[in-house]
Amino acid sequence: GIQVEQSPPDLILQEGANSTLRCNFSDSVNNLQWFHQNPWGQLINLFYIPSGTKQNGRLSATTVATERYSLLYISSSQTTDSGVYFCAVEGSGGSNYKLTFGKGTLLTVNP
Amino acid sequence: NAGVTQTPKFQVLKTGQSMTLQCAQDMNHNSMYWYRQDPGMGLRLIYYSASEGTTDKGEVPNGYNVSRLNKREFSLRLESAAPSQTSVYFCASSETGNTIYFGEGSWLTVV
Fold first, then answer.
1. What is the pLDDT of residues A100-111, one digit of tens each?
2. Nearest CA in chain A to B58
3. Are B97 and A30 in contact (CB under 8 A)?
4. How far apart are CA A110 and CA A82, in angstroms?
């Protein structure tokens, strides 16, 4: 099946700093989503972005499908950004409707 | 709008006991999913249902059964719980190939 690798595995920032999280995938994809899991375990969908660029406030994401990677940018980080960020993909050549998750990036934003 | 609702939130089972995790969504989505999350493993798909009346195995189906009761409800059953099934379980739903929405999770401990 498709492989998803996220980097870095851990990231510690001071409040106000910017960061870039990366997601590499091993095959072409129909679907790519970014999620934030907060410290209470809740999973929130950030972006549905199989290709192109999207922005939502301080967060933006870019997927370069031909190069098989996606980037999540967090600007002016806040303590509430802390948590785990997951990338999930659905391969275009395999079974439908099944997202494969990376292992996540643990982000800690210190005040 | 409740989104995806799953019950129970917490459960402790003895090895060999059975239980059913319930999930319901009110977004009229066709696709529903059950994932488990273990430390350092990201989320792994147990079973999914692409539409009412259909179910299919995911990455880690052994020890589980599912029922797509109707379009709204998708239950996960553990027939004979084992300590290896101690995990956090997430139900999710989506319109086919689109943004996926998660429930708040069910923390299951098997002793």
1. 899 999 999 999
2. A98
3. yes
4. 9
